[in-house]
């Protein structure tokens, strides 16, 4: 668990000194998400990037400096991490089957979720695209899709009457 006022790097060094790869990470404040703070954190922040990762995952460790550089370049956004080993229930709730997985939540709507480590330019472009989204339009599309799915379910033929 992160101690308040510490960055992700500082906390991981504090608790896992044996992982030398973590020592090279720059100090950037990120939030460690847990099942206890996830809902509150996402509801209190309008734009959240979430990195689902694990300490044993080499691609996760390679993506970490890219993620932290993006956090430095976008101080107005909340960058968060979910340690899938420590938070297995949370990872399962989001059906995380491959790590790293990056998720973006805007206005409490998951607008992006994809496994794989992104190169710096791709992450920067993704953030730019996510910023440009008209969330009213996104919510309208979601409502239409949900309404369409409910309508299709009601139209499915049932068992014929005998």
Q: Helices, strands, pairings?
A:
Elements: H1 8-15, H2 20-23, E1 31-32, H3 38-44, E2 47-53, H4 58-73, E3 78-83, H5 88-93, E4 101-106, E5 109-115, H6 120-132, H7 135-155
Q: What's the SSE pattern?
A: HHEHEHEHEEHH
What characterizes the major β-sheet? 5 strands, mixed
Structural class: alpha/beta
Q: Which sequence of strands runs across the widest sheet?
A: 1-3-2-4-5
Q: What spatial form do the alpha-carbon principal axes imply? A: globular
Report on this model:
- 46% of the residues lie in helices and 17% in strands.
- β2, α4 and β3 form a beta-alpha-beta unit.
- It is globular.
- It has a five-stranded mixed sheet.
- With 162 residues, it is of the alpha/beta class.
- It has seven helices and five strands, in the order ααβαβαβαββαα.
